Amino acid sequence: QTPESFPPLRNEAAVRVLRGRMKGIQGHCNSCYMDATLFSLFSCTSVLDSMLFKPFPLCDRNVQSILRDEIVNPLRKTGFVRAGSVMHLREQLTEKGPCSSFTNAEKDPEEFLNLIMHQILGIEPLLRLQSGGQERDSYCYQIFMDKQEDLVVPDVQQLVERSFLSSELKLVEIPSCFIIQMPRFGKEYKMFGKIIPSLELDITDLLLDSPRECCLCGDVATLECS
Predict the structure, then answer these.
(1) Which of 30, 50, 119, 143 could staple 54 via S-S, CB 3.0–4.6 A?
(2) Pairing verdict, β 127-131 and 80-81
(3) Are the C-beta atoms of residues 103 and 87 closer than 8 Å to each other?
(4) What are the structural domain ranges in the chain?
(5) What is the topology classification, in CATH, of domain 11-120?
(6) Membrane-spanning regions, if any (predicted)?
(7) For position 99, what pLDDT does the model report?
(8) Phi and psi angles of residue 20, each rounded to the nearest 5 degrees, phi first
(9) Other C-beta atoms within 10 Å of 71: how many?
(10) Span 99-109, pLDDT tens digits
(11) What value, to the nearest 5°, has the Cα angle with vertex 74 and ends 98 and 76?
(12) For the chain, where are the alpha helices, taking DSSP H only?
């Protein structure tokens, strides 16, 4: 355990600490979905550090301390988290959650995020989405889309925009944190062999009622054509 708090890794420090053999979060017993999610959320960003410290209304302080002291701080300090630490968290999720298979079965990252953010820590939803006039809250957005022949090696910007368009979705407001799950793939099928990370994401066209420029006259647009 590392009770001392460490900031997220940035720039040269991230390369120095995270690159090489025996780095990252050690996998064990179908833990890849959780390992990848935790690494993405905490290794190089502090956006969700409130999960580690803030006493939310429903907050389980034991789960919070395991997440902070056994996973996030060791990852940021040494670049390595042993499998036993993640298993300790999985055991707590199994004990406190409605599902009994968190210690051995592969899950969807969204299922993990909903459990730990909503039921165990009591965090408010991060996203407000609208589709067909109906609003819904969410903690992350999973990209769903049909295979498109013109997208061979897409970037995240393209995937998010096309997924929102095909699902007729809009963001009701600018999210405090936008967690995006890439298209699913299994052992037999991958929709894309590679996806290029977009280091910045332009959500102008994804926002509901966002003022935008007319592509013909340059004034503020009053109509939108998909």
Answers:
(1) 50
(2) unpaired
(3) yes
(4) 11-120, 127-221
(5) Cathepsin B; Chain A (3.90.70)
(6) none
(7) 78
(8) 120, 180
(9) 25
(10) 778 888 888 89
(11) 105
(12) 11-18, 32-42, 50-53, 61-65, 73-78, 83-96, 109-113, 156-167
CB-based contacts of 222, cutoff 8 Å, min separation 6: 214
Q: How far apart are CA 187 and CA 139, in angstroms?
A: 27
C-beta of residue 30 within 8 angstroms of C-beta of residue 98: no
Phi, psi of 6 (to 5 degrees): -125, 140
Sort strands 141-142 and 180-181 into parallel, antiparallel or unpaired: parallel
Give the end-to-end CA distance of the chain in Å, rounded to a whole number.
51
Contact 110, 119 (CB under 8 A): no
- Neighbour-count burial of 30, counting CB atoms closer than 10 A to its CB (0-12 exposed, 13-18 middle, 19+ buried): middle
Burial (CB < 10 A; 0-12, 13-18, 19+), residue 106, is exposed
Provide CB contacts within 8 A for 36, sequence distance 6+: 109
Question: pTM for this one?
Answer: 0.87
Residue among 195, 199, 202, 222 at smallest CA distance from 211: 222
- Show the beta-strand stretches assigned E in the chain: 24-25, 80-81, 127-131, 134-138, 141-142, 169-171, 180-181
| Chain segment 146-191, per-residue pLDDT in tens | 888 888 899 999 999 999 999 999 999 999 899 999 987 766 777 8
